[in-house]
Amino acid sequence: MTASVAEAVRKAGVVGAGGGGFPTHVKAAASADVLLVNGAECEPLLRSDTELLLDRAERVVRGAELMRDSVGAGRAVVAIKRKNAAAVEAIERALPQDGVELVLLENVYPAGDEFLLVYDTTGRVVPEGGIPLDVGVVVNNVTTLSQVADAVEGRPVTSRLVTVQGEVSEPATFRVPVGTPIGEVVALAGAPTADDTVVLAGGPMMGRIVDGPSDPTTKADAGFIVLPKDHRMVTTRTATDAYVLRIARAVCCQCLACTELCPRFLLGHELMPHRTIRAVQYDTLEVDHDHVTSAFLCCECGMCELFACPLEIQPRRILAALKAELARRGIENPHRRTGLTADGVREYRQIPSGRLVQRLGLSRYDGPASFEARAVEPARVVLRLLQHAGAPARPVVEEGQRVLEGDLVGEIPDGSLGARVHASIDGTVESVSRREVTIAAK
């Protein structure tokens, strides 16, 4: 079973749809004793996974069964937040008599982080610098698993559900072809309700600012949040690195709030953001400094800078910059402790999502975004050849070539980690580069 499922998933170009974009065929070829289905959808305002569960619960369960058998797991667990009662009911109706179980999660952030999800459902702590597979667990997003079920039936990834929330008149979730311009996707949610807005791809905690409306959607984009340009979720991202460092050096009072609420620290990982900030304050940035290299342990959830810090310092930005600099210097993560134990106070320091939304100034946008099954037919799509972890796909089409939805346009380079890319509409290849393939609708 392993070879057939993994090969079907590879051919279909399935990747982690929760944002990571890791090629799913690699996970399908692994060996684990637990298959964990991530339906937490912990980013504020996003609804695409929940709406998928309402619309295609049977496909998710089928994908979970296929992946469970592929990795040889004796246990398959679907994890969904208790608050999403309708989605819970949909999954319960779709569950088989045995073989797949349901675990209900509390409405906290970041419940969907793989390491936290593994601990909350199995009691196992992923080691520093490790992955869930190190403790016998494979984690897949619910959208990914619905695509696994499609892949085994010969259907490649050509579309996905995305949520549009924020400063729009009709927030909703839509199924759109991969590569549809983001501006067109946002327009599906009605007229803008504010002037001078910015779009975040992904959630407000970990999402990125979209360069422009012509940027294409990818397999890993779960939603788009439209916010005023002066909103804190925008200004924290647009601040320069020099400004972020200057503020950290000037005002950090070493209160420890960033560390005490750090999800990875509470799992027992030796990540203490306040000590990294102290190293920044005193210019002790030697690469062998434990609190500099501990940046490798950061999952960049944003809790430290967007919720914990009373002075709006940005430890996450600093830790991310340190990771990038260490990688540039060819330095590997030295933190590899195993046999960790979660902090006993962890359960008392989890942050309710409602409280987080309020702190972020997003309460006015925190409403429903139901799935609308309307046809989305873009005039053209731009298919990025790198919308996954690993190497870019190699284009296998030429300008002027006619393609149908599902035709292969990008192949995994030999010997590389990567994912295939397929045409998401019928049309004519308009342009081909090492970076992307553009298809104009017929």
How much of the polypeptide forms β-strand, as a percent range? Answer: 15-25%
* Low-confidence region ranges: none
CATH architecture of the largest domain: 3-Layer(aba) Sandwich
Reported by name, the CATH topology of the largest domain is Rossmann fold
Description:
With 442 residues, this protein is of the alpha/beta class. The protein folds into four domains: 2-152, Rossmann fold (3-Layer(aba) Sandwich), CATH 3.40.50; 158-231 and 364-378, Ubiquitin-like (UB roll); 240-360, no CATH class; 380-442, OB fold (Dihydrolipoamide Acetyltransferase, E2P) (Beta Barrel). Helices cover 32% and strands 19% of the residues. The chain has 16 helices and 19 strands. It has helices at residues 2-12, 24-28, 48-71, 85-94, 114-122, 142-152, 182-187, 232-238, 241-251, 257-260, 263-266, 273-281, 290-293, 303-308, 315-328, 353-360, and strands at 34-39, 75-81, 101-105, 108-109, 137-141, 159-166, 172-177, 197-201, 208-209, 223-228, 351-352, 371-372, 380-384, 394-395, 402-403, 408-411, 421-422, 427-432, 436-441. A six-stranded mixed β-sheet has the order 9-8-10-6-7-12. The protein has a four-stranded parallel β-sheet with strand order 3-2-1-5, with helices on both faces. Strands 13-19-18-15 form a four-stranded antiparallel β-sheet, with no helix packed on it. Helix 1 packs antiparallel against helix 3, helix 1 (2-12) crosses helix 6 (142-152) and helix 3 crosses helix 6. The model has no long low-confidence stretch (mean pLDDT 95).
